């Protein structure tokens, strides 16, 4: 059998990996448990310039720009009284620095564009295919589905999100084979914060369009909350987060009832989302069908692979949505994994008579390089998100002083037109090394270019 990747999960990362494999001439199949990959979930995904560049490399930029919401300014404000503490044009500065804009995209639109541009969308995506078990063997993997079907391939890429079944199977296989299972065990994902994300009509609210508002430390006395929103003249997309009342839990997010969502919204009623608009005003105009309440997990795995199974995206590193970097981290991990696999397979496809499949040891070496590479890049971002969510929900005089007097003068995002963020984060963006690409340039040179050694 020719080398074939089984991708578990048809979310943004699974679909992006499929694009990468098509360009690497690597056969693949996506197994998705739902009856379609095109669900209508209303969450808004801030897509950073380095990620927009990755999408440009696979030919999606024009389509994505057409469906993106506009964004120009960022304003932070006190949730208690609506006073704006900082205003910046961070987003525009980033476009100047890198040649690519920030694109706020509805997940449903992004997934649709990834899907319609995929050559193998009809033949290589299997919906209603919930993975229940995986059995690696010397030359490949057997993947079992809930309906009893067996799918065969060479490796499994688990892109099945924060509750990854692939991760659970991988961890239990690793424990069976390890001399010291405790050392290998991955820690579970933990939820400390929960919230609502969704959409409301802006027609009567009049929230200033194309401004990202971040309202900090408002809400309940016992912890505070953060509300982030971005409006067009017609709609406003919002997300809220506050600490779980019972403290951190590794239990899976419950399915919150309408009544629980109502009670949560009531607890934030007086929080100012922007000057002159309270959360209760937004809630009065909410579109229920595109609104969800859930726990937002956090976790960073120690072991990203075992045998012929490797994890990517939220399955392996998961933050809250507060810094808008979860998908970005996952896609760049996906690019590195695709680079490693492409490089391994190309080395083996030499002369026809020498052609052979990679061994498990060769695959594990490639997975290890991927893991080490990405761990060192994602961990600082993950740590930043972990600290940020704890900072922005906080009440009390220290955070008040920080927001009122410190941030307006020394904000990483505005300092020297965002150059710190540009140099430390955005310019380091990954690229598919095997896909010819010139791309756009800004004032800050990209660290990684096709055919160029990393600076
Ligand atoms: C409110 C909110 C706002 C966010 N905002 C941003 C943002 O602004 N910017 C950003 O970069 N990120 C953001 N994120 C994070 C981003 O949504 C995730 O990082 C991203 O969706 C992860 O993609 P994924 O493909 O790894 O997993 P998922 O999107 O979770 O997809 C996993 C897929 O696997 C399927 N699956 C699961 N189990 C199985 C199984 N056993 N068999 C087969 N299929 C299975 C699922 O049905 C699903 O389709 C936000 C998240 C939330 C909740």
TrEMBL record:
Keywords: FAD, Flavoprotein, Oxidoreductase
GO MF annotation, one: monooxygenase activity
Cofactor requirements of the protein: FAD
UniProt cross-references to Pfam families, sorted A to Z: FAD_binding_3
Record field: transmembrane: none
Positions of the FAD-binding domain: 4-170, 284-346
Residue ranges the record marks as coiled coil: none
Domain of life (superkingdom): Eukaryota
Annotated family: Belongs to the paxM FAD-dependent monooxygenase family.
Protein's UniProt name: FAD-binding domain-containing protein
Source organism of this protein record: Sordaria brevicollis
């Amino acid at each position: 059998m020719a080398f074939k990747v089984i991708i578990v999960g048809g979310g943004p990362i699974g679909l992006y990996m499929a694009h990468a494999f098509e360009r690497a001439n690597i056969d693949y199949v996506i197994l998705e448990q739902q009856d379609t990959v095109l669900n209508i979930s209303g969450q808004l995904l801030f897509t950073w310039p380095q990620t927009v560049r990755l999408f440009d490399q696979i030919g999606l930029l024009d389509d994505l720009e057409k469906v993106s919401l506009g964004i120009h300014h960022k304003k932070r404000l006190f949730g208690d009284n609506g006073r704006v503490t900082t205003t910046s044009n961070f987003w525009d500065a980033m476009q100047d620095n890198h040649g690519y804009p920030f694109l706020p995209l509805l997940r449903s639109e992004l997934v649709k564009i990834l899907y319609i541009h995929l050559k193998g969308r009809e033949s290589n995506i299997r919906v209603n295919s919930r993975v229940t078990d995986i059995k690696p063997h010397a030359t490949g993997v057997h993947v079992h589905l809930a309906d009893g079907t067996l799918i065969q391939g060479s490796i499994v890429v688990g892109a099945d999100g924060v509750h990854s079944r692939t991760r659970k199977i991988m961890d239990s296989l690793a424990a069976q084979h390890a001399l010291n299972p405790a050392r290998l065990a991955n820690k579970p994902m933990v939820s400390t914060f929960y919230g609502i994300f969704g959409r409301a009509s802006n027609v009567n609210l009049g929230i200033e369009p194309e401004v990202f508002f971040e309202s900090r430390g408002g809400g309940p006395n016992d912890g505070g909350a953060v509300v982030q929103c971005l409006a067009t003249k017609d709609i406003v997309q919002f997300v809220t987060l506050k600490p779980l009342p019972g403290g951190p839990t590794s239990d899976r997010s419950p399915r919150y009832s309408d009544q629980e969502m109502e009670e949560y919204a009531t607890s934030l009623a007086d929080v100012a989302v922007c000057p002159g608009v309270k959360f209760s005003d937004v809630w009065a105009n909410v579109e229920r069908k595109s609104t969800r309440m859930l726990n937002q997990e956090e976790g960073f795995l120690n072991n990203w692979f075992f045998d012929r199974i490797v994890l990517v995206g939220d399955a392996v590193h998961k933050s809250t949505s507060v810094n808008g970097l979860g998908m970005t981290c996952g896609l760049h991990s996906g690019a590195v994994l695709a680079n490693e696999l492409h490089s391994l397979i190309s080395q083996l496809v030499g002369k026809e008579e020498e052609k052979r499949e990679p061994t498990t040891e060769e695959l594990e070496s490639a997975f290890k390089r991927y893991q080490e590479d990405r761990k060192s890049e994602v961990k600082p971002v993950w740590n930043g998100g972990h600290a940020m969510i704890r900072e922005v929900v906080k009440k009390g005089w220290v955070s008040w002083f920080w927001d009122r007097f410190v941030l307006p003068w020394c904000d990483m995002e505005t300092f020297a037109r965002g150059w710190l963020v540009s140099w430390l984060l955005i310019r380091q963006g990954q690229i598919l090394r095997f896909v010819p690409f010139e791309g756009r340039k800004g004032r800050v040179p990209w660290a990684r270019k096709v055919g160029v050694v990393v600076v």
